[in-house]
Design brief:
This protein is α+β, with helices and mostly antiparallel strands. It has five helices and five strands. It has a five-stranded mixed β-sheet with strand order 1-5-4-3-2.
Amino acid sequence: MSTSKPLVSLTYTEVSKHAAKDDVYIVIHDKIYNATEFVDEHPGGEEVLMDVGGQDATEAFEDVGHSDEAREILDKMLVGKLNRLPGDPGPPVKAHGASTSTSSSSSSSGFGVGLYALIVLGGAAAFGIYKYLQISQESKQ
């Protein structure tokens, strides 16, 4: 929060009006960031920011796994805090079904590790057989 300006308090409706390329606000963890000057510099392209412009971008931001440097840049863009009113969309919450997909994702990840181990062991066995046959061939000569 290295901004010298006082932070503003805006409603979701007010933030949603800032969704143009020349005036784009995003909300992450109920903090409002003015990303206007960063639109053209965003490594993922301007469309990434424009897709979440004027909206809560918490889930999109966290799903990407931004670096510490990205979070420092974000801190410099802080302009205020979101004042959620009744009827405003709530903060994104992973649905109960998401935990199921996470566990299936980790089980498929476990399958990937097992498959990788099988490939490595197969390669090692093939190399061992190759060396054995090479030595056998040399001893016959």
